Prior knowledge:
- The protein has helices spanning 4-21, 26-35, 44-56, 58-65, 78-93, 99-113, 118-133, 135-146.
- It is mainly alpha-helical.
- It has a single domain (4-146), classed as NusB-like (N-utilizing Substance Protein B Homolog, Chain A, Orthogonal Bundle), CATH 1.10.940.
- Helix 1 (4-21) packs across helix 5 (78-93).
- The protein starts with a helix and ends with a helix.
Amino acid sequence: MGGARSKSRRAAVQALYQWSIDPLPATEIISQFNEEGILAEADGDLFEKIVKGAVDEVISVDQALSPHLSRDIQQVDPVEKALLRLGGYELMYLPDVPYRVVLNEYIKLSKTFGSAKSHQFINAALDKVAQQSRKLEIADYERKKTK
């Protein structure tokens, strides 16, 4: 998969999955990934920012996601939960990353890690979070698209 930022997101999905199974402090998981060389070709700063951020803001991200899920977040498959939480975190807290990039990255990752239809589930939920947290950016994009 693509460049350093994409590799960071891919590793972040694995890290957040690990955290959901064994909730160690994010800093320990980040250190472990660094020590194991998993981040050799990744953007380490982005990896650290989104893993730490998704863990630190898990409650607010889960609250933003919950109205758009067909089941309780705790019942969502751990891989899909990691994808949703990371994508939700980026949409809500990293406005410098265009929302379409965030959606595309996590849809791609869901096709790699998720079940057959998980990309539809991830796309639908993250799109709703984007519509809430990126209203101006989406309106601007739509305006430019119609010109």
